[in-house]
Amino acid sequence: METGLVDSLLREERVFRPQPQVVREANMGQAELKAAQTLARQDYRLFWEERAAEMDWFAKWDQVLDDSNPPFYKWFSGGKCNLVHNALDRHILTVNKNKLAVIWEGESGECRKYTYYELYREVCRLANALRGLGVQKGDRILIYLPPLPETVITMLAAAKIGAVQTLVFAGYSARSLRERIESCRPKIIVTADGFYRNGRVINLKSVVDEALFGEDADCAESVIVVHRAGVETDMVEPRDLRYEDLIRQESPQAPTEVMDAEDPLFLLYTSGATGKPKGLLHTHGGYMVGVHATYRWVMDVKPTDLYLCTADPGWITGHSYVVFGPLMAGTTVVLYEGHPLYPQADRLWAIVARYGVTILYTTPTLIRMLMRYGSQYPRKHDLSTLRLLGSVGEPIGPEPWVWFHKYIGRSECPLLDTWWQTETGMFMVSPLPISLLKPGSAGRPLPGVEVDVVDRHGNPAGHDKGGFVVIRKPWPAMARTLWNDDQGYRQAYWEKIPGVYFAGDVARKDEDGYFWFQGRADDVLNIGGHRIGPAEVEAALTAHKSVVEAAVIGVPDSIKGEAAKCFVVRAEGWNKDYDSEDELIMALKAHVKRELGPFVSIRAIAFREQLPHTKSGKILRRLLKAEETGAAPGDLSSLEEE
Ligand code: ATP
Ligand code: MG
């Protein structure tokens, strides 16, 4: 019978041991980890209850986990809290009051800094203004903003007054924005006149006008416009309001709404790598507990840290680990508005050096892009303040891992590949700073979460067999449902394999229990009966020095059922090593066979100047597949126009 298992071909033998000082000083040291794992195994409810007790609550919960109506789990039912109380209000009473919360750098070079107290006052002002506009608990606020201090302020103010926020990435079109408006019916939209991206001014407000054109008036009663780029905008009376006018007279004190643990905090659409973006709903209580704990363990934050994450606040990484997690931990966050390569390939390194960034969390796509420009750019800057690196979003692959670790992390900083999703809300599989690191592996599941690899029927795949990634037990930061679509939530995640959460990814676990992600279940190739994860073939290709990025898809083959077709972005200077494209193609085919074994036959290799990506920077394989096979590509609203 078809098991759905995936072959595993990639073998990576290198290991990196943590520095003694990192081990000594880690928030989650060996002893704590042992204790956490033991408790989590014995009683994971008690384990998470202890984590919840590390936060401030207005009233304690009656029950840690209510699992009476699966898959609609509830955490900390009866508890009263507000994430913003933990992210902001409580810091005002401690030494964090005058600590920097946010350092913002605009693409054009300007800088704004906010202490926790200043941020608190701004959030209170906006909270009062929103209340003045009639926003009540449960009303939706749609935030269509680039990374600006006002983005953070609006996110916190919305949560503070109990509104449900939806961020829409500022690169989305009027049509995508309108779809989200129609789905969540926001009372208020917060946007900006414009912003800077790659040296250009993007006119943002006009996109909102277009999206709202003809929209009935019970939705988006007000559009609040932040002044950022000095773009002329048509202000529609009385709908449109200037952010600065709105808050000018407001008091810098405002009460924080008392929320039930299960009250919604935000609604967020996924990045759309596999299909139409799905709107996932997250709540205050469980989410704040899960994000807070995992941020402290993995990013290992200390009071002196300066933290930079390159994700846009509009993605889940931006929610959990640019804004909410770091602020709950009292960290100083560096927020950058613009393009990471503007005006040239060392912008990120200049930012690290300018502020003395200690923790850098980014994506494989950006790492590959930076690799392409070579190590001369990082070498121009003092990166010695960095002490911890992270990656998220796609399988990173061993070679980009090693490059990042060596040239940015001085072969010293722990590089943590974190696997998680919009749906999980928090890190699920990740090494800790004290872990032994294997390049290309995301390490093991964190304490309190039970992630496994199984076949189509839910049986464990066993060591070194690839299979479906599932989660066996509920976890506090899990999404509660799809917006207005309980049935869709059940079908997409809980009915594919009985009794477990189906993540939609494939991976293998090695003999040490380390996870090696192989790509999306939808993208698995079937070559002559062998199921192969695209990420392994892509990693093999990227290990070749003439390749910077690769995408692999299955195309129909009359003999083998399917064959691999590869799309490759070449490295600068490839033609010094090869006389012709044909010669390079032959070399790459032989290289992949050598790395992965003889049956990975590659039908064709096509060279591209760039690969199609989602707006969040992930390779959009289904578009390549559609172009190749003539099939419908599906929803392309997430495609980044490059
Ligand atoms: P959609 O669900 O709409 O296709 P998406 O899955 O890209 O979009 P996200 O929730 O932002 O939306 O991304 C989560 C996915 O990203 C994971 O399911 C996985 O495929 C991939 N991913 C994230 N981190 C890692 C990682 N460290 N290693 C491998 N894959 C990762
Ligand atoms: Mg997904």
Automatic annotation (TrEMBL):
Domain AMP-binding enzyme C-terminal as annotated: residue spans: 536-618
InterPro entries: Ac_CoA_lig, ACAS_N, AMP-bd_C, AMP-bd_C_sf, AMP-dep_synth/lig_dom, ANL_N_sf
Keyword Acetylation: yes
AMP-dependent synthetase/ligase domain mapped to chain residues: 96-476
Domain of life from the UniProt record: Bacteria
EC primary class: ligase
Pfam families to which the protein is assigned, alphabetical: ACAS_N, AMP-binding, AMP-binding_C
Keywords attached to this entry: Acetylation, ATP-binding, Ligase, Nucleotide-binding
Family: Belongs to the ATP-dependent AMP-binding enzyme family.
Name of this protein: Acetate--CoA ligase
Species per Swiss-Prot/TrEMBL record: Fundidesulfovibrio magnetotacticus
UniProt lineage: Bacteria, Pseudomonadati, Thermodesulfobacteriota, Desulfovibrionia, Desulfovibrionales
Gene, per the UniProt record: acs
